[in-house]
Specification:
Elements: H1 3-9, H2 11-36, H3 46-57, H4 59-89, H5 92-102, H6 105-108, H7 110-134, E1 139-142, E2 145-148, H8 150-157, H9 161-188, H10 197-225
Antiparallel strand pairs: 1-2
Length: 227
C-alpha cells in the first residue's frame, strides 16, 4: 500500500479531503453567487443570459464544472465515512451527556445538514443545469447575438412560492453548514493559531450569513417582482 493510499484512508487523510473539497466548494459559492446576482440587473435577463452562455462555452469553466461535481461527490462520500467512524469511536454516554456543551449544534449535525443540502443540489441541478444542457430552452436576441433564454426558466421557477420557500430554507441549512465547516477546514489544514483562529472564526460566521442570505434574496426578489 503506497503512502498516498495510506494517507487518504486514514482519519487525518479523510479530514484533509473534506477540508480541501470544502474550501473549493466555498470558493465556487462565491463565483456562482456573483453570476446569479446578475438575475437582479433589471434588464430582462440580458446580462444573465450572456453570462450563462459564456460560462457554458468556456473550456476552463467546463473543467471547473467537472471538478465541482467530483468534489461534491468526494465531500459527500467522505462525510459519510467520517460520520460512520466517529459514531463507532464515540461512546454513547459521552455523546449524550457532553455533546451539547462541547460542540455547536451545527458541528453535531453536519451529516444531516449535508444530506439536506445534497437533496437541494440535486433538485437545483435538475431544474436548471439539466434544462440548460438537455432541455428545450427558448432563445433571446440582443445586440451581442442570440442566446439561450435561461433567465425565463429561472424566472418561471422563482414564480412558484413552494420552490422559493424550499430555496430559502435550504439556504438556512447552508448557513448552519458553513458556520462550522469554514473554520473547521482551516483547522484541519493546520491553520490554527491563537492569534489568527478567532479572526478566521469571525470571517467564517460572516461568510456563513452573507453568502446564503444573498443567495436566498435572489428568488425572493424575483418572486415579489413577478407578483
Amino acid at each position: 500500500m503506497s503512502w498516498v493510499t495510506k494517507t487518504l484512508s486514514s482519519t487525518l487523510g479523510r479530514k484533509l479531503i473534506m477540508a480541501l473539497t470544502g474550501l473549493f466548494l466555498i470558493l465556487f459559492l462565491v463565483v456562482h453567487l456573483a453570476g446569479n446576482l446578475q438575475l437582479l440587473a433589471g434588464d430582462g435577463g440580458r446580462l444573465f443570459n450572456i453570462y450563462a452562455e459564456s460560462m457554458a462555452s468556456n473550456p476552463l469553466i467546463r473543467v471547473v464544472s467537472i471538478l465541482n461535481f467530483v468534489f461534491i461527490a468526494l465531500h459527500v462520500v467522505y462525510s459519510i465515512i467520517l460520520t460512520k467512524y466517529n459514531k463507532q469511536a464515540r461512546p454513547v454516554g459521552y455523546a449524550v451527556s457532553g455533546a451539547s456543551s462541547n460542540s455547536s449544534w451545527a458541528s453535531r449535525n453536519m451529516g444531516v445538514l449535508g444530506t439536506i443540502l445534497l437533496i437541494f443540489i440535486l433538485v437545483h441541478l435538475r431544474g436548471f443545469w439539466y434544462e440548460f444542457k438537455f432541455g428545450s430552452i427558448p432563445t433571446a436576441t440582443y445586440e451581442e447575438g442570440t442566446f439561450k433564454d435561461v433567465y425565463t426558466i429561472v424566472s418561471s421557477a422563482y414564480s412558484n412560492v413552494i420552490y422559493v420557500l424550499f430555496y430559502v430554507v435550504s439556504m438556512g441549512f447552508l448557513a448552519f453548514h458553513l458556520s462550522h465547516g469554514f473554520a473547521s477546514a482551516f483547522q484541519t489544514l493546520g491553520l490554527n493559531h491563537k492569534k489568527y483562529s478567532p479572526l478566521i472564526k469571525k470571517v467564517g460566521i460572516g461568510f456563513s450569513i452573507l453568502i446564503p442570505l444573498l443567495f436566498a434574496l435572489i428568488p425572493v426578489v424575483m418572486f415579489l417582482q413577478g407578483m
